[in-house]
Amino acid sequence: MVPETSTPAASGTPPPAIALDLVTRRFDGTRQVTALDQVSLDIPRGEMVSIIGPSGSGKSTLLNLIGGLDRPTSGRVRVDGEALDGLSDDGLTRVRRDKIGFIFQFFNLLPTLSSVENVGLPLHLRGWPRARVAARAHELLALVQLGHRLQHLPDELSGGERQRVAIARALSIYPPILLADEPTGNLDTRTGGEILALIQALHARLGSTVVIVTHDLKVAASCGRTIALRDGRIVEDVRR
């Protein structure tokens, strides 16, 4: 099946998949914390990028801003050429629904739903017909090598299998952008390597823009570009 992706404008160079312009995010509490400090960044379409840095460097904040899960204190975030700062909450929901797939460290699967039901849930929420949802969910679970685990509940799966289900769910609409927050962080070394290889293979097959937040330098080195954060600022940006 051909991936359902956005069509670039007929004229001119298409915008980057992700663009940040002087983005700052501050959190107010007993004292003010600056999680990101005037970060500017372009990620072209189809690039696979890792974001690294020590705890508290701003990695997860950056991913949440790109994914429309949070809003910057100042600056502008664009996804697929669309500025997020002017959007309502419903508008941000639309962007997440239509353009972004999320992979989380702790899987976030619904425990009472089978593999095929977890993968199909985002499509049911989009109003897809039941038969079409089932066909896509079966297709994606086969793609992540879980065609034999369709009816298993999360508790009946290994950690690696749960992450594969989570990846299949993130790909349910073949999103142009895939955001992964420590996708191997809750797995043993061998299983983590398998999940990383799967993400690389899917990236090559689907051409999605992939951004991975990670503490694992091996995961970071597997990407074509690595961006290092420290104290909320970009301190290194390396392409391989």
Structure description:
The protein has 240 residues and is α/β, with parallel strands linked by helices. The protein has one domain (18-239): P-loop containing nucleotide triphosphate hydrolases (Rossmann fold). Helix content is 33%, strand content 25%. The chain has helices at 59-66, 89-99, 115-125, 130-143, 159-170, 189-206, 217-221, and strands at residues 18-27, 33-43, 48-52, 74-79, 82-83, 100-103, 177-181, 209-213, 225-230, 233-239. The strands form 2 sheets. A 6-stranded mixed sheet has the order 6-7-8-3-9-10. It has a 4-stranded antiparallel sheet with strand order 2-1-4-5, covered by helices on one side. A hairpin with a 2-residue loop joins strand 4 (74-79) and strand 5 (82-83). Helix 3 (115-125) packs across helix 4 and helix 5 packs parallel to helix 6 (189-206). It is globular, with a radius of gyration of 18 Å. The model is unreliable at 1-9 (pLDDT under 50).
- The poorly predicted ranges are 1-9
The total count of helices amounts to 7
Q: Provide the residue-averaged pLDDT.
A: 90
Major beta sheet, strand line-up: 6-7-8-3-9-10
CATH homologous superfamily designation = P-loop containing nucleotide triphosphate hydrolases
Number of domains: 1
Specify Rg, calculated over alpha carbons.
Answer: 18 Å
Count of beta strands = 10
Largest sheet: 6 strands, mixed
CATH fold topology: Rossmann fold
Structural class label: alpha/beta
How much of the polypeptide forms β-strand, as a percent range?
25-35%
Order of helices and strands: EEEHEEHEHHHEHEHEE
Q: Please give the share of residues in helix.
A: 25-40%
